[in-house]
Amino acid sequence: MPSYLPEPPFTHGRSIARVGLLLVNLGTPDAPDTPALRRYLAEFLGDPRVVEIPRFFWWLILHGVILRTRPAQSAKKYAAIWQSEGSPLRFHTAAQAAGLSARLEAAFPDNPPLVRYVMRYGQPSLGQGVTELKNAGCDRILLLPLYPQYAASTTASSQDALFSALARWRHAPAVRTVHHYHDDPGYISALKGRVEGFWATQGRPDVLVMSFHGVPQFTLHKGDPYYCECLKTGRLLAQALGLEPHQYRISFQSLFGRTEWVKPYTAPLVEQLARTGVRHVQVLCPGFPADCLETLEEIGMEVKATFLNHGGEVYHYIPALNDDPTWLDSLTRIALDNLGGWLPAPLPTAEEQAAQKNRALEQGAPQ
């Protein structure tokens, strides 16, 4: 028989149902050191949504080779971007959750949705977030991923973790999940504002590179829409900025393993731009709403060095949206669009609460 977690206390006529919102990001290690990276990478790379290789053979590779060498290498990279507040991805995600919560509280002061941020890998976990929302009386939960473009390795994996967490509860809440918002007008407008604000202080580049996280090429052919959604985001942003085709490029970063990934790859692209006479490049990462290792270290340091070492002269990384107010306004609207029918949630009157309690007591309820 399954062993369920204990349900939170309930009192008829006094317990009020709430809506919960889980803002989920990919994840981060707890510290920039080898043990923390080993734990994080074991969870991340052990997900069959992330690495689609037969489990037995991949387990041998992961535990026999990768987790013996890669954690120390990754720890050095994380140490280069770690800040006094901790992991950039974690504190930026926390700030986004706080901004979203404040906006929802202003819109629904009597019974606002309860917002928690969680990580697909690492802490705070999705299971922890579900437990907090359940114990707070939430009977409806919206999963809002910080992945604008859908991918099986991110969006679907987070859905897997959510439903796995729900399986531990006898009284599972109603659930909705946001699929994607790669072409949402508010998201595109926030990106446009971020770029134009950067241009106002740093000038316009010869070429704007929009770099997205890469995925294996075979995922596209098997039906994953991620690559197409990235291209659409890039096209819509270029149109919003009034860019001609020669003024921007779309590329993909963070390659892993030996399989072919969707192209063009970001580092070789900026190297080619430098070699062909492009002097000023700026790179934006639209698929990362919060700054993290892939933006701050890979794009901000490694790709920058590649460009400058091959003849480029001026290179800038345009920061992620993070807690930009325009972005948080758009994120709030995306949440509200997906909470339709669940909000507003009016509080019952004192008379309604008393009547509910009396009916329950008449039927034998203890409280």
Automatic annotation (TrEMBL):
CDD domains xref list: Ferrochelatase_C, Ferrochelatase_N
GO cellular component terms, semicolon-separated: cytoplasm
Keywords, ordered alphabetically: Cytoplasm, Heme biosynthesis, Iron, Lyase, Metal-binding, Porphyrin biosynthesis
Localization annotation: Cytoplasm
Enzyme Commission numbers on file: 4.98.1.1
Principal location class: cytoplasm
Biological process according to GO: heme biosynthetic process
Reaction equations catalysed: heme b + 2 H(+) = protoporphyrin IX + Fe(2+); Fe-coproporphyrin III + 2 H(+) = coproporphyrin III + Fe(2+)
Protein name, entry field: Ferrochelatase
Gene that this sequence comes from: hemH
Top-level class of the enzyme under EC nomenclature: lyase
